[in-house]
From TrEMBL:
CDD domains: NAD_bind_Shikimate_DH. Homodimer. It comes from Aidingimonas halophila. This is Shikimate dehydrogenase (NADP(+)). GO terms for cellular component: cytosol. Involved in the biosynthesis of the chorismate, which leads to the biosynthesis of aromatic amino acids. Catalyzes the reversible NADPH linked reduction of 3-dehydroshikimate (DHSA) to yield shikimate (SA). Shikimate binds at residues 14-16, 61, 86, 102, 215, 243. The lineage of its organism: Bacteria, Pseudomonadati, Pseudomonadota, Gammaproteobacteria, Oceanospirillales. Residues 6-88 form the Shikimate dehydrogenase substrate binding N-terminal domain. It catalyses: shikimate + NADP(+) = 3-dehydroshikimate + NADPH + H(+).
Length: 270
Protein backbone atom coordinates (compact mmCIF):
# COMPACT_ATOMS: atom_id res chain seq x y z
CA UNK A 1 0.00 0.00 0.00
CA UNK A 2 1.55 3.28 -1.11
CA UNK A 3 1.79 6.01 1.50
CA UNK A 4 0.72 9.59 0.83
CA UNK A 5 -0.25 12.49 3.03
CA UNK A 6 -1.27 16.14 3.14
CA UNK A 7 0.91 18.49 5.18
CA UNK A 8 -0.68 21.56 6.72
CA UNK A 9 -0.93 23.52 9.94
CA UNK A 10 -3.66 23.17 10.99
CA UNK A 11 -4.71 20.21 8.89
CA UNK A 12 -7.33 18.40 10.98
CA UNK A 13 -10.26 19.40 8.79
CA UNK A 14 -8.61 18.54 5.48
CA UNK A 15 -10.85 16.73 2.98
CA UNK A 16 -7.83 15.45 1.03
CA UNK A 17 -7.60 12.02 2.75
CA UNK A 18 -11.21 11.18 1.85
CA UNK A 19 -10.87 12.60 -1.67
CA UNK A 20 -7.75 10.56 -2.47
CA UNK A 21 -9.12 7.40 -0.88
CA UNK A 22 -12.27 7.81 -3.01
CA UNK A 23 -10.13 8.23 -6.15
CA UNK A 24 -8.24 5.01 -5.35
CA UNK A 25 -11.47 3.12 -4.67
CA UNK A 26 -12.68 4.02 -8.18
CA UNK A 27 -10.25 1.52 -9.64
CA UNK A 28 -10.29 -0.94 -6.79
CA UNK A 29 -7.05 0.25 -5.23
CA UNK A 30 -6.25 1.09 -1.63
CA UNK A 31 -3.84 3.83 -0.64
CA UNK A 32 -2.71 4.97 2.77
CA UNK A 33 -3.34 8.77 2.75
CA UNK A 34 -3.22 10.65 6.05
CA UNK A 35 -3.23 14.28 7.24
CA UNK A 36 -0.04 15.34 9.00
CA UNK A 37 0.35 18.54 10.98
CA UNK A 38 3.95 19.53 10.27
CA UNK A 39 5.66 21.77 12.83
CA UNK A 40 5.76 25.40 11.67
CA UNK A 41 9.55 25.53 12.08
CA UNK A 42 10.47 22.21 10.47
CA UNK A 43 8.55 21.38 7.33
CA UNK A 44 11.65 19.84 5.72
CA UNK A 45 12.08 17.53 8.69
CA UNK A 46 8.46 16.40 8.42
CA UNK A 47 8.88 15.49 4.72
CA UNK A 48 12.17 13.72 5.50
CA UNK A 49 10.57 11.69 8.29
CA UNK A 50 7.65 10.82 6.03
CA UNK A 51 9.82 9.54 3.18
CA UNK A 52 12.06 7.67 5.64
CA UNK A 53 9.01 5.67 6.69
CA UNK A 54 7.83 4.78 3.20
CA UNK A 55 5.98 7.94 2.10
CA UNK A 56 6.15 8.53 -1.67
CA UNK A 57 4.03 11.63 -2.21
CA UNK A 58 2.44 14.53 -0.37
CA UNK A 59 0.07 17.38 -0.90
CA UNK A 60 1.07 20.62 0.76
CA UNK A 61 -1.35 23.22 2.02
CA UNK A 62 -1.27 26.42 4.10
CA UNK A 63 1.23 27.59 5.29
CA UNK A 64 3.89 25.37 3.69
CA UNK A 65 3.55 25.85 -0.08
CA UNK A 66 6.49 28.24 -0.36
CA UNK A 67 8.65 26.06 1.89
CA UNK A 68 7.84 23.05 -0.24
CA UNK A 69 8.93 25.10 -3.25
CA UNK A 70 12.30 25.78 -1.60
CA UNK A 71 12.74 22.19 -0.47
CA UNK A 72 12.15 20.46 -3.82
CA UNK A 73 15.26 19.25 -5.69
CA UNK A 74 13.52 19.72 -9.04
CA UNK A 75 10.49 21.81 -10.01
CA UNK A 76 7.94 21.71 -12.81
CA UNK A 77 7.73 24.79 -15.03
CA UNK A 78 4.32 25.67 -13.63
CA UNK A 79 5.62 25.41 -10.04
CA UNK A 80 8.51 27.74 -10.90
CA UNK A 81 6.03 30.25 -12.25
CA UNK A 82 3.72 29.89 -9.26
CA UNK A 83 6.55 30.17 -6.73
CA UNK A 84 4.74 27.49 -4.77
CA UNK A 85 4.41 23.72 -4.57
CA UNK A 86 1.32 21.79 -3.52
CA UNK A 87 2.48 18.35 -4.67
CA UNK A 88 5.72 16.61 -3.65
CA UNK A 89 6.79 13.33 -5.20
CA UNK A 90 9.67 11.08 -4.22
CA UNK A 91 11.41 9.99 -7.41
CA UNK A 92 12.93 6.56 -7.97
CA UNK A 93 16.33 8.22 -7.62
CA UNK A 94 15.34 9.39 -4.13
CA UNK A 95 15.07 13.07 -5.04
CA UNK A 96 12.07 15.31 -4.37
CA UNK A 97 10.09 16.70 -7.30
CA UNK A 98 7.79 19.70 -6.71
CA UNK A 99 4.76 20.63 -8.78
CA UNK A 100 1.62 22.70 -8.34
CA UNK A 101 -1.83 21.57 -9.42
CA UNK A 102 -3.90 24.43 -7.99
CA UNK A 103 -4.11 26.45 -11.18
CA UNK A 104 -5.02 23.58 -13.43
CA UNK A 105 -7.52 22.53 -10.79
CA UNK A 106 -9.26 25.90 -10.93
CA UNK A 107 -9.33 25.99 -14.72
CA UNK A 108 -10.69 22.42 -14.98
CA UNK A 109 -13.40 23.14 -12.44
CA UNK A 110 -14.48 26.19 -14.45
CA UNK A 111 -14.47 24.10 -17.65
CA UNK A 112 -16.56 21.37 -16.03
CA UNK A 113 -19.08 24.01 -15.01
CA UNK A 114 -19.20 25.36 -18.55
CA UNK A 115 -17.60 28.71 -17.69
CA UNK A 116 -15.71 29.95 -20.76
CA UNK A 117 -12.42 31.69 -20.07
CA UNK A 118 -11.32 32.28 -23.65
CA UNK A 119 -12.10 35.82 -24.85
CA UNK A 120 -13.76 36.66 -21.54
CA UNK A 121 -13.18 39.60 -19.21
CA UNK A 122 -11.84 38.32 -15.92
CA UNK A 123 -11.40 40.10 -12.60
CA UNK A 124 -9.26 38.50 -9.92
CA UNK A 125 -9.49 39.81 -6.36
CA UNK A 126 -6.32 39.44 -4.30
CA UNK A 127 -2.62 39.31 -5.11
CA UNK A 128 -1.19 36.82 -2.62
CA UNK A 129 0.22 33.35 -3.07
CA UNK A 130 -3.15 31.82 -3.92
CA UNK A 131 -3.59 34.15 -6.90
CA UNK A 132 0.00 33.83 -8.11
CA UNK A 133 -0.54 30.08 -8.10
CA UNK A 134 -3.40 30.16 -10.62
CA UNK A 135 -2.43 32.98 -12.99
CA UNK A 136 -0.48 30.98 -15.57
CA UNK A 137 -3.21 28.42 -16.37
CA UNK A 138 -5.85 31.17 -16.47
CA UNK A 139 -3.83 33.29 -18.88
CA UNK A 140 -3.06 30.23 -21.00
CA UNK A 141 -6.77 29.88 -21.81
CA UNK A 142 -6.68 33.19 -23.71
CA UNK A 143 -8.99 35.56 -21.84
CA UNK A 144 -9.64 38.95 -23.49
CA UNK A 145 -8.44 40.72 -20.35
CA UNK A 146 -7.47 39.98 -16.77
CA UNK A 147 -7.47 42.63 -14.05
CA UNK A 148 -5.92 41.78 -10.70
CA UNK A 149 -7.35 44.05 -8.00
CA UNK A 150 -5.96 44.07 -4.49
CA UNK A 151 -6.24 46.02 -1.23
CA UNK A 152 -2.53 46.76 -1.59
CA UNK A 153 -2.44 48.04 -5.19
CA UNK A 154 1.33 47.76 -5.50
CA UNK A 155 1.24 44.01 -5.00
CA UNK A 156 -1.32 43.60 -7.77
CA UNK A 157 0.74 45.72 -10.16
CA UNK A 158 3.90 43.74 -9.39
CA UNK A 159 2.09 40.44 -9.90
CA UNK A 160 0.64 41.57 -13.23
CA UNK A 161 4.10 42.67 -14.34
CA UNK A 162 5.46 39.19 -13.63
CA UNK A 163 2.93 37.64 -16.04
CA UNK A 164 2.99 40.28 -18.82
CA UNK A 165 4.47 37.83 -21.30
CA UNK A 166 1.43 35.57 -21.03
CA UNK A 167 -1.33 37.91 -22.12
CA UNK A 168 -3.38 40.97 -21.30
CA UNK A 169 -3.04 41.31 -17.53
CA UNK A 170 -3.10 44.45 -15.41
CA UNK A 171 -3.05 45.15 -11.71
CA UNK A 172 -4.32 47.87 -9.39
CA UNK A 173 -6.31 48.76 -6.31
CA UNK A 174 -10.02 48.04 -5.85
CA UNK A 175 -10.66 51.58 -7.17
CA UNK A 176 -9.48 50.46 -10.63
CA UNK A 177 -12.39 47.99 -10.87
CA UNK A 178 -14.97 49.22 -13.35
CA UNK A 179 -17.03 47.66 -16.04
CA UNK A 180 -18.76 44.35 -16.34
CA UNK A 181 -16.85 41.11 -15.90
CA UNK A 182 -17.76 37.68 -17.23
CA UNK A 183 -15.90 36.05 -14.37
CA UNK A 184 -14.87 37.40 -10.97
CA UNK A 185 -12.57 35.16 -8.93
CA UNK A 186 -12.13 35.88 -5.25
CA UNK A 187 -8.60 34.87 -4.28
CA UNK A 188 -8.36 37.05 -1.17
CA UNK A 189 -8.41 35.54 2.27
CA UNK A 190 -10.98 38.20 3.22
CA UNK A 191 -13.71 35.53 3.20
CA UNK A 192 -12.09 33.88 6.20
CA UNK A 193 -12.71 37.02 8.23
CA UNK A 194 -16.18 37.46 6.72
CA UNK A 195 -14.96 40.58 4.93
CA UNK A 196 -15.91 41.71 1.45
CA UNK A 197 -13.67 43.89 -0.73
CA UNK A 198 -15.35 47.18 -1.72
CA UNK A 199 -16.86 46.45 -5.14
CA UNK A 200 -19.28 48.31 -7.42
CA UNK A 201 -22.83 46.92 -7.69
CA UNK A 202 -22.57 46.68 -11.47
CA UNK A 203 -19.66 44.25 -11.35
CA UNK A 204 -21.04 41.39 -13.40
CA UNK A 205 -21.79 41.11 -17.10
CA UNK A 206 -25.08 39.39 -17.87
CA UNK A 207 -24.56 35.66 -17.27
CA UNK A 208 -21.50 36.59 -15.22
CA UNK A 209 -19.98 34.09 -12.80
CA UNK A 210 -18.59 34.62 -9.30
CA UNK A 211 -16.02 32.08 -8.14
CA UNK A 212 -14.65 31.94 -4.61
CA UNK A 213 -11.45 29.94 -4.17
CA UNK A 214 -12.62 29.36 -0.59
CA UNK A 215 -15.45 27.06 0.39
CA UNK A 216 -17.38 26.31 3.50
CA UNK A 217 -20.60 24.84 4.79
CA UNK A 218 -22.30 28.16 3.97
CA UNK A 219 -21.69 30.35 0.89
CA UNK A 220 -18.96 32.94 1.55
CA UNK A 221 -19.93 36.59 1.95
CA UNK A 222 -18.54 37.22 -1.52
CA UNK A 223 -20.79 34.56 -3.06
CA UNK A 224 -23.80 35.81 -1.10
CA UNK A 225 -23.11 39.32 -2.35
CA UNK A 226 -22.73 38.04 -5.93
CA UNK A 227 -25.93 36.00 -5.76
CA UNK A 228 -27.84 39.11 -4.73
CA UNK A 229 -26.52 40.70 -7.92
CA UNK A 230 -27.77 37.79 -10.05
CA UNK A 231 -24.39 36.25 -10.80
CA UNK A 232 -23.94 32.53 -11.06
CA UNK A 233 -21.95 31.39 -8.01
CA UNK A 234 -19.35 28.63 -7.60
CA UNK A 235 -17.27 27.84 -4.52
CA UNK A 236 -13.79 26.35 -4.31
CA UNK A 237 -14.79 22.80 -3.44
CA UNK A 238 -14.63 21.83 -7.12
CA UNK A 239 -11.12 23.31 -7.37
CA UNK A 240 -10.10 21.28 -4.32
CA UNK A 241 -11.24 18.05 -5.97
CA UNK A 242 -9.67 18.93 -9.35
CA UNK A 243 -6.28 19.86 -7.89
CA UNK A 244 -6.37 16.60 -5.95
CA UNK A 245 -7.15 14.67 -9.15
CA UNK A 246 -4.16 16.21 -10.92
CA UNK A 247 -1.88 15.32 -7.98
CA UNK A 248 -3.29 11.80 -8.04
CA UNK A 249 -2.50 11.60 -11.74
CA UNK A 250 1.10 12.78 -11.14
CA UNK A 251 1.61 10.06 -8.55
CA UNK A 252 -0.37 7.17 -10.00
CA UNK A 253 -0.86 7.89 -13.72
CA UNK A 254 -4.65 7.62 -13.61
CA UNK A 255 -7.30 10.32 -14.05
CA UNK A 256 -10.03 9.94 -11.41
CA UNK A 257 -13.70 10.69 -12.00
CA UNK A 258 -13.92 14.01 -10.18
CA UNK A 259 -17.63 14.56 -10.67
CA UNK A 260 -18.62 11.54 -8.58
CA UNK A 261 -16.30 12.59 -5.76
CA UNK A 262 -17.46 16.21 -5.82
CA UNK A 263 -21.08 15.08 -5.60
CA UNK A 264 -20.24 12.79 -2.69
CA UNK A 265 -18.45 15.64 -0.89
CA UNK A 266 -21.42 17.96 -1.37
CA UNK A 267 -23.72 15.29 -0.02
CA UNK A 268 -21.22 14.82 2.81
CA UNK A 269 -20.96 11.10 2.25
CA UNK A 270 -17.18 10.68 1.85
P1 LIG B 1 -2.89 33.45 0.26
O1 LIG B 1 -1.87 32.35 0.30
O2 LIG B 1 -4.24 33.04 0.75
O3 LIG B 1 -2.95 34.12 -1.05
P2 LIG B 1 -1.59 35.81 1.21
O4 LIG B 1 -0.44 35.60 0.30
O5 LIG B 1 -1.34 36.26 2.61
O6 LIG B 1 -2.42 34.47 1.39
O7 LIG B 1 -2.62 36.80 0.49
C1 LIG B 1 -3.83 37.16 1.09
C2 LIG B 1 -4.60 38.04 0.10
O8 LIG B 1 -5.88 38.37 0.67
C3 LIG B 1 -3.93 39.36 -0.20
O9 LIG B 1 -4.27 39.73 -1.52
C4 LIG B 1 -4.58 40.30 0.82
O10 LIG B 1 -4.55 41.67 0.47
P3 LIG B 1 -3.21 42.55 0.80
O11 LIG B 1 -2.19 42.15 -0.20
O12 LIG B 1 -3.66 43.96 0.65
O13 LIG B 1 -2.83 42.19 2.20
C5 LIG B 1 -5.99 39.80 0.78
N1 LIG B 1 -6.77 40.12 1.98
C6 LIG B 1 -6.66 39.57 3.19
N2 LIG B 1 -7.57 40.08 4.05
C7 LIG B 1 -8.30 40.99 3.34
C8 LIG B 1 -9.40 41.84 3.64
N3 LIG B 1 -9.94 41.87 4.86
N4 LIG B 1 -9.87 42.64 2.64
C9 LIG B 1 -9.33 42.62 1.40
N5 LIG B 1 -8.29 41.83 1.06
C10 LIG B 1 -7.79 41.02 2.01
Amino acid sequence: TERYCVFGHPVGHSRSPSIHSAFAAQHGATIDYTAIEAPLDDFAGAWQAFTNTGGVGANVTVPFKEEAFRLADTLSERAKRAGAVNTLSLTSAGTTQGDTTDGVGLVRDLEHHGVALKDSHVLILGAGGAVRGVLEPILATGPASVLIANRTAMKARALAADFQDMGSVEGGGFDTVSGAYDLVINGTSASLAGDLPPLPDSLFASNGTAYDMMYGAEPTVFLQWARERSARTLDGLGMLVEQAAESYYLWRGKHPDTRAVLEALRADVV
